[in-house]
Amino acid sequence: MKQAERRAGRKERKSVLRPRTTSRLAAVQALYQMQMTDKPASLIVEEFVAHRLTELEDTTSFGLADEELFRELTLGAAKERETVDAIISDTLVEGWAIERLESTLLAILRVGAHELLNHGRTPTAVVISEYVDVTHAFYDETAVGLVNGVLDRIAQVVRERDGVDDDDEDEDLAPRTDRTG
Predict the structure, then answer these.
(1) What are phi and psi of 70, to 5 degrees?
(2) How many CA atoms lie within 13 A of 166 on its CB side?
(3) What CATH code is carried by the domain that includes residue 91?
(4) CA separation for the pair 159, 162 (Å, rounded)
(5) Is residue 177, in this structure, part of any structural domain at all?
(6) What's the rounded mean pLDDT across residues 82-109?
(7) Any idea of the CA torsion for 166, 168, 169, 174, to the nearest 10 degrees?
(8) Taking 60 as the threshold, does the pLDDT of residue 126 lie above it?
């Protein structure tokens, strides 16, 4: 598929209301802000709820964020940062250190990893796809591939941890009528 076709497909999907996507994007932005300002997670979350979630609704066309999911992802990723960072570090290719990752890319990986590790109610493929889409908003294909690869390896760790084999995961991805992601 050509890059122009992929972009056109993203634009078409963008017109659909996707409050969970808005929540994920906001969580990435909130984690980035925490990293840049050293402000506490709870303060940043309240600032986003009071001001920024409605701004994202206006600028993304995805709809108003699912506030509960936004809070869960942001506060959870912030609370478990050390654990999540260790898992991300373990999945990076040899020679890459987590410190080499740009701040926005690291925020994407932190929120995505946290969701994979703690929110089993959303199928793995949906979670990875969502963070790949978020990455497209900021980066080129190289970074998108990195996010896809790291999150896929983390998903494998989660499947092993939970005793789920790949065939069981495929059953979870059977077509559903609820596609809120």
Answers:
(1) -55, -50
(2) 3
(3) 1.10.940.10
(4) 5
(5) no
(6) 92
(7) 130
(8) yes
Q: Check residue 38 and give left, alpha or beta (phi > 0: left; psi -120 to 50: alpha).
A: left
Token representation of residue 21 = 């996507």
State the maximum Cα–Cα separation within the chain, in Å, rounded to a whole number.
43
* Residue 178 scores a pLDDT above 50: no
| pLDDT at res. 181 | 43
Dig out the tokens for 138 from the structure: 């900021």
Which tens digit of pLDDT belongs to each residue from 19-33? 888 899 999 999 999
Residues spanned by the domain of 18? 3-172
Provide the number of structural domains found in the chain.
1
Q: 3-state SS string over 10-41?
A: HHHHHCCCCHHHHHHHHHHHHHHHHHHHCCCH
Burial 73-97 (b: 16+ CB within 10 A, else e): bbbbbbebbeebbebbeebbeeeee
Indicate whether 164 pLDDT > 60: yes
pLDDT band, very low/low/confident/very high, at 162 (cuts 50, 70, 90): confident
Cβ distance 55 to 96 under 8 Å?
A: no
Q: How far apart are CA 168 and CA 67, in angstroms?
A: 30
